[in-house]
Amino acid sequence: MDPQTGANVNLSEAPKPSSIDPEEVARYTALADRWWDESGPFWPLHTLNRLRTDYICQRLCAHLGRDPSAPRPLTGLRLLDIGCGGGILSESMARLGARVEGVDVTERNIAVARLHAARSGLDIQYEAVPVETLAARGEQYDVVLNMEVVEHVADLPGFMAACNQLVSPGGYSFIATINRNPVSFIVAILGAEYILRWLPRGTHQWRRFPKPAELEALLVPDGLRVLERTGVRVNPFNRGMYLTGYLGVNYMLMTTRTPAFAGVTELRSRTCGGS
To answer: How many CB atoms lie within 10 A of CB 8?
Structure first.
């Protein structure tokens, strides 16, 4: 739906930003109805979600001077969940008090997320729209979650430029992905997809995994700086996931946007067509 006219928009006919990979959209469309099956193909996301929800809450509260043990410690924060899928992380953030908006380029994922949120009694705004469209609208958020998405996009620099613009001055973003090195190929591709079969084969393309330095370099032009880094390790015996100082496979970055760079990013958006 067009936010200004209220008219329905057919996303299949609208021009697609170059960061969208049609093959990835098709893959997740086929899996969309199984998002909330914790024993299905998305069980790693459910396990990871418990870890990352606690991490996000703890780190935000530490930087904002809030009590993470309060009933709804993220109350008042406008939060965007990019690539929200079926809404697993979005719902966790909403339960912590944040005003959550979730976006995904797969319309079936959005349908699943809306249905589950309604059944759960949660007020979450979902929209099937690319981040480039949000950036073009001038949307900005206190917190932007970019979790397990960057390794699936076709144009990482363009995608990150749009994501960066969505972080309000003084706001925060969290980015989670997989490193690119021989260890990550063995663990994330051979191990998770072919040996343990925790993920469907073809879920990831190793060449798209960004190294931390590569990802951080895409933050600098828009005035974002990294506050914290953490790795995530997986125990193959009990399927547990834990934080670690080792960034060689799965890792997360917490960043903040320097207020002084707001005008620079606005100028960049105008001169670069929002990308």
So the answer is: 8
